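Incident log entry.

Two folding requests arrived from the same account within the same minute. Monitoring flagged them as a possible duplicate submission, but the sequences differ. Recording both here for audit purposes.

Request one:
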Amino acid sequence: MSRIIAGAAGGTTLVSVPGSLTRPTTDRVKEALFSRLDAFEVIADARVLDLYAGSGSLGVESASRGAKAVDLVEFDGKASEVCQRNADLVNAVARHKVVSVHRSKVESFLDRTQAGILWDLVFLDPPYPLDEPALAVVLAKLLPHLAEGAVVVAERSSRAPEPSWPDGLERFAERKYGETKLWFAEPGVEEGPEDEPDQPEDPEGT
């Protein structure tokens, strides 16, 4: 059972999507991820986009930690209903609407997004069957909607190849946690920092 780890709604138990259609980020990986994002100082007052949101766990965690606006995008009906329930939990704590839920295919959502709407932090946790060319299309559609200094986090199987980043979006770090690998990218990098070496695998249950 997943929970919000820290922030205004820290400790709140989240509703999970029934069945096995989604692959939720474990609390162990989520805690490691947000520790890094806190170090990057990209969460406070950020506009956050959670694509393939599933239960919305990453988006609502961002809202709890001080993001000013969060958009959850999920096409599956049951999952989008769970997103809304989890959004309601965090919005109730904030006493205003921080998290919005959009039932839509990711590609359609990005196609409809008006020019000039920018996000500071974007999560992509697509289903494993989504192949790399399809993910590359989504990343290309996302690129015009990234704010200066934005961070994009792609979560994939540790057996999957690195995403094919479009021109203008470059990977600057990666981390592996058991069966999960996180890729971090940013826009407009000309001479980015040297890639950080992978840390030893942090298997579940240790």
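Request two (distinct sequence, not a duplicate):
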Amino acid sequence: MPDPLSLYVDAQFASPYAMSVYVALHEKQLDFHISPVDLGALEHRAAGFSQLSLTQRVPTLVHGDFALSESSAITEYIDETFPGTALYPREPQARARARQLQAWLRSDLMPVRQERPTEVIFYGPASVPLSAAAHRAAKTLFQVTQSLLADGAENLFGEWSIADVDLALMLNRLVMNGDAVPQRLASYADRQWQRPSVQRWVALERPPR
């Protein structure tokens, strides 16, 4: 029997990082158990979870007796451990670029992440216009995407990769809120959003906000 897989995610199913891992597991066609963690109730700080998850964060993947948190570390582990759909480009430089993009999306663009949290995607749009700082961050996001996405390309690096999902989600913070996004980039984000593994996350039943 293979070691069981469990994925701990936020109870609202709104974390972009939990979504990335969830999509990765489905792309690999792996069976796993999903365990919601109520972050508002500080369940991630409770003794059981804090002892399980090194950084006390979601997502956390448990594979047998091995537990791993931090989403890009998890998706790399999944890709290197299990056969099936490749989550990262095979070519070393493209693979490094995908990892770079993931790291950047998780560490920069804070005004967009703060003013357009993923709740605008899964619960409904925000009513407050973007600040000047968020407009500047969005402009940087568009410039980076346009430099990586070739004209007419469906994916960033030829074949689909998990970085496409992460980038599409960042763009959709703006697209689904009704903010201005270049049409080519909005179309790219919409195509990525229709991927069956992504739609499985979108379709999860969420508690009221």
